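In response to a reviewer's request, we include the raw inputs and outputs for one of the modeled complexes. The two entities were modeled together in a single run.
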Amino acid sequence: MATFEEIYVQYSPKVYRLCMGYVNNHDLAKDLVQDTFVNVWKYLPGFRGDADVGTWVFKIATNICLSHLKKDSRQAQTDLPTDLADIPAENTDERIALLYRSIAQLEENERLIISMVLEDLPQKQIAEIIGISEGNVRVRIHRIKEKLSSIMKYYGQF
Amino acid sequence: MDNFDDLKNLWQQMPVQPLLSAAEMNKKAADYQNSMRRKSVFAIGCLLTTLVFIILVGFWIEPQYVTTRIGIVITIGAIVMAVVAQSRLIKTLLPQQSVELDSRHYLEQMVAYQKSMRNVQTKILSLYFVLLSLGIGLYMFEYVMKMPVTGRFLAVSLTAAWIAFNWFYIRPKQIAKQQSKANQIIEQLENVCRQL
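The model returned the following structure tokens for the whole complex.
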């Protein structure tokens, strides 16, 4: 079975992107990554080796993100400027920033699902992490993509 | 979305802010666990010290009436109970949610936890005011009995007024504050639950 260090090295960048997709704030995302891996460290001795370690880590990460609910959480997403609408992004950094800003407009569970889709997790794994059926995940992904697409079009992208 | 693969590429290109190294993270997790353990030990230590203090006071002040001793014990007991309620110890008495569950079940557990927490807090607050009033009343009894009639009347009236003010004004206000905070969290959690 993988050691804590191996799991951390392999999954911390993925978990970081997931957390960024959820909170859209670098400092908060780093805190959520740390909380996730404190829990991974704590529960690793009891982790069953036959289960998929990636699914397990993502379950912990999504739950840590969901625990971070607070009033006006969307207003806390301050890493991106608010005056970007209708200005086509030129470079990669701006495009990445716009992608995150668009994801931030989605509902909590939509942000988590789309982050996992962009992270290339199979639908079966996403279904297991969220706790809904694979068919349900498929339908949701389709809707979220449409929603994201229209948000990005509003910003003059894609 | 035809160009969803472009978004995937863009996503993967996002620069990851410098995170802790694996060794640093390992140490941080171990430190966190130890600090939690230290806090629990400290809280239990404080409780035991208070209990010893109550017993010593009971012997030391040598009141003539047993009601005075009972009053002291109840008053300090109420304060201890309030401190425990504010600490992490109370949380260990409630069913805990597991971060290893899937999101839907985790959220359901969180809602259940917040609801029990809300009920427990309300009950503890009412119990705190009852015990505090009773404790002070019993403690005062011996000394009031030794006062002249006017002083006795004044002391009893003022104490009764103070207890009534706490019970009818402070207590409902505190409960409303706690409930509103808990309701807000529960509403947010239920809102996300509904999305699933």
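As requested, we also summarize the result in words. Residues 26-195 of chain B form one domain. The interface with chain A takes residues 1, 3-4, 6-8, 10-14, 16-17, 19-20, 22-23, 25-26, 28-30, 32-33, 99-107, 110, 184-185, 188-189, 192, 195-196 of chain B (CB under 8 Å).
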